[in-house]
Amino acid sequence: MSGSEEIAPGVYLVGGPNISRAEDATAFVIRFPDTLVMIDSGGGRSTGILEKNMGEAGLDPGGISLLILTHCHIDHIGGAPYFREIHGARLAMHDLDADAVEQGDPVRTAAHWYDMEFPPTPVDRRFTGSHEVLPFGGEELHVLHTPGHTPGSVSLYLDREGKRILFGQDIHGPFLPAFGSNLDDWRVSMEKLLDLKADILCEGHFGIFPDREKVERYLRKYLREYS
Asked: What is the DSSP letter of 24?
């Protein structure tokens, strides 16, 4: 395993395959002038590794004011109870996936897939709009409702130093009835992401796509596959 990676100024990959544990989706921390924002938190068995990776990057886990969960699956949310309880991070996610987290639903969280348990966990903020803007120290973190993989999936983007950084976790699927997946909604979501013309894509399981051409090629690959 390797430690954290700065993928753009002040944007760090701190967890995921080859970074923490194989079952973890990618987890990111964004440094803003007065706070840290975390995006997803791994499957829950690697919180110590995530903390270590943050420390090596000069990031204090206690400075995380908001942990945004991109959807309700355990490989993304498993560490959330720990970061909320130990470090005081407020949890935020879309309203349509939040009940699964608050109820600890083993099916909707996919915990049963991983032979794991997820405890019922309060969600401090529920996104309800199609596009919400979170201001941080003169910058804006955009939260887009991008249903498809799950009803409450969100993607985020940040414009920093002339680059648009897109956090599109699990936009590749899978699409299953147990997840509440909807391919028609997903296609609309993918077109919305294409319209952003992102320069960097941070994906949930397949890594970082570091230029606009590679981002578009990745998105269109799955649109063709599920056309």
From this structure: P
- Tell whether pTM > 0.90: yes
Handedness of CA 88, 94, 100, 106 (dihedral sign): negative
Calpha distance 54→14 (Å, rounded): 6
Contact 37, 20 (CB under 8 A): no
DSSP code of 4? -
Among 137, 128, 186, 195, which Cα is nearest to 166's?
195
Q: Which residue has the tokens 């019922």?
A: 120
Measured over the CA atoms of residue 147, residue 168, residue 3 and residue 84, the dihedral's sign is negative
pLDDT single digits (tens) 31-89: 999 999 999 999 999 999 999 999 999 999 999 999 999 999 999 999 999 999 999 99
Domains of the chain: 5-225 (3.60.15.10)
In degrees, to the nearest 5, what angle opens at C-alpha 80 toward C-alphas 187 and 106?
Answer: 70
